[in-house]
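$ ./design --mode recover --in tokens.txt
reading tokens...
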């Protein structure tokens, strides 16, 4: 039973540690991810708006639309991403990538729809070929009216690399904290089970008639109260056993009166 109690307490400590560290890891990683992505979104939104303002000079009436692609390619090289310029229908007019494979295609990205409605938007996406990327779209306004949109696509592996590093650090910290708590818990468990084991052995001695058995537990907690109650009971039983022995001894020494014939 002693080993069973130790096992139960160890499992309880383990479950508490595991649940606590899992919850802490979830909260920390979620908040860190939100913070990192928010910072990157803000930076890319600022860049997309600058690109949209420059593109507006080429997209208006009498503009030099045919000169826009080299400008877009220059911005794409600066930000390390891909830039698309789209018309009101969401069709690609300019593609900074070599080959311009998306020119003429209609894109239905939520960021593009939001930009064509007049609001800039950025959101992360996971692509099988490219991994994690951030799509950032901003409206191109000509004479204060939304005419087109610009879509900036940039790879953001560094953000999720930081997340992976944070998770690894949390796992290591969890192992260190968990080991320390388990060691402390083991000491506490021994402090609880050791006096209980002594009480169990003393109870077995008492059951075998060794009424002089006492336990040496002087703590002020519930186990200490139990030990003092056990010693009190053992003393009472020892006293009753002594009285019984004296009664039997006295009875055996009394003169026996013969029965009359």
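writing sequence...
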């Amino acid at each position: 039973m002693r080993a069973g109690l130790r096992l139960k307490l160890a499992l309880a400590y383990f479950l508490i540690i595991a649940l606590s560290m899992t919850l802490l890891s979830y909260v920390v990683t979620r908040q860190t991810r939100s913070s990192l992505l928010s910072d990157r979104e803000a930076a890319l939104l600022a860049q997309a708006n600058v690109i949209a303002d420059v593109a507006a000079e080429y997209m208006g009436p009498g503009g030099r639309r045919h000169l826009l692609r080299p400008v877009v390619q220059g911005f794409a090289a600066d930000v390390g991403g891909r830039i698309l310029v789209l018309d009101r229908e969401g069709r690609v007019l300019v593609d900074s990538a070599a080959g311009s494979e998306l020119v003429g295609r209609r894109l239905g990205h939520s960021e593009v729809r939001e930009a064509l409605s007049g609001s800039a938007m950025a959101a992360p996406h996971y692509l099988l070929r490219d991994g994690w990327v951030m799509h950032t779209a901003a409206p191109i306004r000509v004479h204060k009216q939304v005419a087109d949109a610009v879509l900036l696509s940039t790879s953001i592996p560094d953000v999720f690399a930081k997340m992976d590093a944070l998770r690894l650090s949390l796992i290591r910290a969890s192992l260190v904290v968990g080991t320390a708590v388990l060691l402390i818990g083991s000491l506490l468990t021994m402090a609880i089970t050791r006096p209980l084991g002594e009480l169990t052995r003393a109870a077995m001695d008492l059951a075998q008639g060794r009424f002089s058995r006492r336990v040496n537990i002087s703590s002020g907690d519930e186990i200490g109260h139990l030990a003092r109650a056990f010693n009190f009971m053992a003393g009472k039983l020892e006293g009753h056993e002594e009285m019984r022995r004296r009664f039997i001894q006295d009875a055996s020494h009394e003169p026996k009166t013969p029965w009359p014939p």
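exit 0
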